[in-house]
Batch of 3 targets.
Target 1
Amino acid sequence: MGNLEVITIALIAANVIVSYKGFNDFSFFEKYKFNVGAIRRGEQIRMFSSGFLHADTTHLFFNMFALYLFSDLVIFDIGKFYFFVVYIGSLIAGNLLSLYFHKNEYHYSAVGASGAVTGVLYSAILLRPERDYYFLFLPSRIGDVDLGIPGFVLGIAYLLYSIYGMKKRIGNIGHDAHFGGAIGGYFITLILMPSLLQSNPLMVGLLAIPIVVLFVLQKMGKI
């Protein structure tokens, strides 16, 4: 992760430039944010543009930091162009799921690259599910005990929490966009790397569990 790829730098730069434009120009922010009513009136550009706007510098920083952490893992395994496809596809998938769950809430609005970044994260986990992940500012081990969390455990737990967050509407967080981004990252990666279905079918199946759970709960009217 020492040397950022040009595509990652370009995406971070685009997010920073568009976000800072939005911070200083209210009309620009309002014109390009995700808004259900505006999208249903035909302003489809918001499905894309909202993924480069952020609510504030903290929101922007954490999304870009996460992109920095996981982009190289995906680029190394599938290449720069396919990484870009995963990023943009996950951004759109996140907003599509938000639109699906909030289609009758005409005033519902959202911004952020979280869907795209979560898609990159889920792609990285799908590509290397056994890789251990560690929490920032916490030790990687205590004595002989390794505190790393296997990627597939982290991915499943995160999406199950997102389902809970969607159901309870926890915080001012677009849990549905996160989940939609993960769905995008999952399926786009499988389309680009179908060999994963043969080389690691168990992990492919395990990482699909939260996706199945979400749509079963939705069909049952519980979310």
Target 2
Amino acid sequence: MSAFLGHIHYWLYRKIQLLVERENLILEKTTKVVDDLAEELHSISVDTYGEPINPSIPLENIIDHNNIHGWLANQINIASVREAAFIKDMLDTNADDNAIHVVTAILDAFAVQGQACGVVAQDSLEEHTAPAIYSALQNFYVNGMPCDGGDQIVEDSADRFTWVGDHRLQAGYWRTAGVDPKFMALAYQTWFEAFVKAIDPEFELITTEENGTRLYTIAKK
């Protein structure tokens, strides 16, 4: 049955697995701040949007072989919305003295995973250029399905790679969950920064605004 599965399907599945693992990391870190409340809120998001996949299960043992594309797209949707909904509930419920600690815990989860992915990506980085680092980044975070199209590229040179940071392929999930898009953009920015720093310390991620448009730049220091 796995003969029908190609590299791109395993590539997407690995990114979905990472999304689920980050959700679990957020749960782990926020539990240290608010104890059982984090578990309760996470259970609500699971009941509402569906159970996370078990990241340890091989793709060929879990996918719908009669609807490969649809299964992958649905898993991206479920995992993305569930994570965003959990984050929203954590932010909304903890508006007291715990608020800053909850925010810190969530952003730390993004940073820890971004850093870990950057370390792993070092092994396959063939060129130490900004475009190569951007390409490596695409192997680790969910940025829609291949048919959705990619980011809008603004600058592409060896030392600088810039794209529009509108998160258009994530924004729909965030709207469904009702989470603050500015916070989610900050969380993803934190992930990108940690990834770039880890994969090659000679580069950094710079976030700017140009005529109201958010831009991300991978630049050589």
Target 3
Amino acid sequence: MIDTAMLMAAGLGKRMRPLTATRPKPLVKVAGKPLMDHALDRLETGGVRKVVVNVHYLADTVEAHLKARRCGMEFTVSDERAQLLETGGGLMKAKPLLGDQPFFCVNSDNFWVDGPAETFAMMRRVWDPARMDALLLLVPQARAYCHSGMGDFRMDADGRLTRRREGHVAPFVYIGIQILSPALLVDPPSDVFSTNIFWNRAIAAGRLYGVSHQGLWFDVGTPAAIPVVESTLAYG
């Protein structure tokens, strides 16, 4: 049972300006509550009991919000106040806090609605540590709402992932939710680097897998995305 998660909440939120001039992006409200709380509510419903949250921009505000939240989860802060470490560096810094078992990693700037199956239960069912170092939740390009780009990955019949080829469109977009094995988090190239380094290693070993999300997903990275999410939820 995977019951630990990391919530990535340290980013500067530049694309969300001016809303992030006075608050961190995880505390920007969508549909009546902060983005962070949407993610934490789903993690709690999904059976996660321990959450490591990395902080940098307006870190005191994020910490105060976590302390005020009443729930059955245990929170631990991975402090990046001194230096923003990007996604890979943030994972490496938090690794001692995450334990030695596979864990969920969730971005705080996305918004999803479950399909027929609860997201985290579905990912646990697919996860196979004998074959996988990472399992990424993907959505077909046509259902990546508020997202621009040419896609991220191709996925074969077994779920194994490869990168989009240059000059081509890939059918799947990564939507900021994954399961990671701690065994993948080794040999960092520097203090500051992207999770792409770990994914590339897993691809080379044939151990990066994906699963397609069957519900709704929104890339809530800019202020313009917020009314799209809210109107979709209100009117379907």
